[in-house]
Design goal:
Elements: H1 9-14, E1 28-32, H2 37-48, E2 52-56, H3 60-67, E3 73-75, H4 83-97, E4 102-105, H5 120-148, E5 151-156, H6 171-189, E6 194-201, H7 222-234, E7 239-242, H8 244-255, H9 258-268
Parallel strand pairs: 1-2, 1-4, 2-3, 4-5, 5-6, 6-7
């Protein structure tokens, strides 16, 4: 019986899953959902680092405020639910910048609700913004990025996609789908020299989390989130999750048998008096 040569496995297990990024100056970045929260913080950080940043969201006035003091910003307001707007915006980027080095999907909708509060039309809208819009963006950018032979795709999911949690009845499943999508995108695109980043933040102080009435452990600012995300991409990480003291707890819950996990949730999340 021939001996299996495992010499090629050791270096592969020690190297980053994505290419390291050593310089942001001149990088062509398209931020979807850049008007507030993590998207706005990333926009400010990338502009400061000298990248050429395209800012997209529905609220043009907020994009203009972010870009006001920067000559390396391009504003392209549009609704991520508009399929034609995706195509025209991408074409403008191709005309102006000649391509993209990174696209980041930051747009999201969140409504805290238990399963009995969910309404079909609202659920469809959340899924369209959180999930379907990513597919629309990919359909537009991937052909050119593959022809270019380089680039990166970053998807902002959430630790809410790790396990089923009360109050995230639609948001959580949409983020779980993004985690799955990011994994398969990596398998498809890594051999084609395209980086894929899965970003799973914990609680970040934004317009979305302001809707929560419960205690949010390890709450971070959008600026802290932006620092963690950029650091993770520079290091070539695939999954960028933070803050680790919180996300590691949820990762541990993922591997517990359902009986144990449900018992813990029943103990800590369904206290008397909670809706």
């Amino acid at each position: 019986m021939s001996k299996i040569d495992d010499s090629s496995w050791c270096p592969a297990l020690l190297t980053p899953l994505n290419s390291r990024i050593h310089e942001w100056q001149g990088k062509r970045i398209w931020l979807i959902g850049a008007s507030s929260g993590i998207g706005a913080a990333l926009a400010a950080a990338f502009l400061h680092l000298g990248a050429q940043v395209v800012l997209s969201a529905r609220r043009a006035a907020q994009l203009e405020r972010i870009a006001a003091t920067h000559t390396n910003a391009l504003i392209l307001p549009f609704d991520v639910q508009d399929e034609q707007a995706w195509a025209s915006s991408h074409q403008q980027i191709q005309n102006c910048l000649g391509g993209l080095d990174l696209i980041m999907f930051c747009a999201a909708k969140y409504q805290p609700e238990r399963s009995w509060d969910v309404r079909g039309s609202d659920a469809a809208n959340t899924l369209q913004i959180n999930l379907q819009s990513v597919y629309q963006g990919l359909a537009n950018i991937l052909p050119d990025m593959m022809q270019q032979g380089s680039g990166g795709i970053a998807i902002i999911a959430s630790v809410a996609g790790y396990v089923g949690l009360p109050n995230a009845s639609v948001y959580g499943p949409s983020k779980a789908a993004l985690i799955n999508l990011s994994e398969l995108l990596y398998l498809d695109l890594h051999p084609k020299n395209i980086n894929v980043y899965l970003v799973n933040p914990g609680f970040v102080k934004t317009e979305l989390t302001a809707k929560n009435t419960f205690f949010m452990p390890a709450l971070q600012s959008p600026e802290q989130a932006a620092v963690a995300i950029i650091k993770g991409m520079q290091q070539g990480q695939f999954e960028i999750h933070f803050p680790r003291r919180f996300t590691r707890v949820l990762k541990f819950l993922q591997i517990l048998p359902y009986r144990w996990r449900f018992a813990l949730f029943d103990r800590f999340l369904n206290q008397p008096g909670q809706a």
